[in-house]
Amino acid sequence: MVLSIDYAISAGFPSPAEEHAHKRIDLNEILIKHPQATFLMRVRGSSMRDAGIDDGDVVLVDRAIRPCHGHVVVAVVDGEFTIKSLWQRGSRIKLQAANPTYPDIVPVDGQTVEIWGVVTRAIKDMPS
After folding, report:
1. What is the tens place of the pLDDT at every residue in 94-104?
2. What is the CATH number of the domain that holds 68?
3. Which of 1, 45, 53, 92 gives 20 to 30 Å between its CA and that of 18?
């Protein structure tokens, strides 16, 4: 996707008008590091709200990034997708919600858990 940027917007003090330049940007270039391994997924539910990821947001998920402790990840638990924060110590893992009303997912014997990809961005609609 290529957009035209007519001007920059100051989030602090207003900037002089001559600094506003017309240039084109490529959102794929800015947002996506590994195009062949990046997917868009829509979030359903509020288990990650305290991490700034809300119901209806779209997340970019990069499958080329090695998941590490603290990453927000998309996991497949018993065949169902979920988005959680990865807690990892050695070979032990748990999937932590960012909302205290949701329990952590701690894998038990016989349960299948696959870390599917790492969330790199969240795109949200602004209130209108």
Report:
1. 999 999 999 99
2. 2.10.109.10
3. 1
